């Protein structure tokens, strides 16, 4: 119906100055760009990753808290009982010696497959009521606490920070997310046994997809940084480079 006949005022009829017109055009362009960028993100599969991780927040929170608490426990227990570190780090020296004899590319692949396999196990073995991923997080947090105490006594906290942060900012979240995914699978099994409907196969397929499409590439990136960038950062800090 014609606005003139109804007496209503349409958008086109509202008088606008040049600034208001430019503002509307700018907002329209920004919305268009946002939709285009969002579409590109979704087409790359990141929308599914984002949605999956959003639903995983409770499990991630539990896992992160356990990791922090076990790290503090490892640090404090070693501080009061230095000899206990021998047990906690048993086998680690042989592993370091093995890595020292590798080429940089071999080191990167070794770190990548070591983290990827352990993370995959933490997820898959979560089907056993979520116990394995919880133990995985507790043991890794404890060992990190032990290493942090020993290195802090010898080289200081700045050295530890620079030795972990470049790759750890990617590696640690990926490992903890894998453990959180395993905890969720364990909770799904428990809920299923309690008679509640849970699509365990669907959850498992979704978790596997997230692991191979998101977590593994990020672990490879972290392994590359740990092999080629972290040593340079440490070298610059210690004056070797």
Automatic annotation (TrEMBL):
Keywords associated with the record: Membrane, Transmembrane, Transmembrane helix
Transmembrane segments: 60-80, 95-113, 120-144, 156-183, 210-237
Top-rank taxon, per record: Archaea
Matches recorded under PANTHER family: SLR1478 PROTEIN (PTHR35337)
Record's protein name: Stage II sporulation protein M
Protein source organism: Methanococcoides cohabitans
Lineage summary: Archaea, Methanobacteriati, Methanobacteriota, Stenosarchaea group, Methanomicrobia
């Amino acid at each position: 119906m014609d606005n003139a006949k109804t007496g209503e005022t349409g958008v086109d009829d509202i008088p606008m100055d040049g600034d208001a017109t430019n503002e509307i055009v700018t907002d329209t362009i920004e919305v268009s760009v946002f939709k285009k960028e969002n579409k590109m993100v979704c087409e790359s599969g990141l929308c599914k990753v984002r949605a999956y991780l959003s639903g995983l927040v409770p499990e991630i929170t539990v896992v992160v808290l356990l990791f922090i608490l076990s790290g503090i426990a490892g640090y404090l227990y070693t501080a009061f009982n230095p000899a206990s570190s021998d047990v906690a780090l048993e086998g680690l020296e042989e592993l370091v010696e093995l890595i020292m004899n590798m080429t940089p590319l071999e080191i990167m692949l070794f770190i990548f497959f070591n983290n990827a396999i352990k993370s995959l196990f933490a997820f898959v073995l979560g089907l056993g009521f979520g116990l394995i991923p919880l133990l995985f997080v507790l043991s890794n947090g404890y060992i990190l606490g032990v290493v942090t105490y020993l290195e802090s006594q010898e080289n200081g906290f700045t050295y530890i920070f620079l030795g972990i942060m470049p790759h750890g900012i990617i590696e640690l979240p990926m490992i903890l997310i894998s453990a959180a995914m395993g905890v969720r699978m364990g909770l799904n099994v428990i809920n299923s046994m309690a008679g509640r409907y849970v699509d365990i196969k669907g959850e498992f397929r979704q978790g596997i997809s997230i692991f191979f499409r998101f977590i593994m590439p990020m672990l490879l990136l972290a392994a590359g940084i740990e092999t080629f960038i972290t040593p340079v950062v440490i070298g610059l800090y210690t004056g070797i480079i």
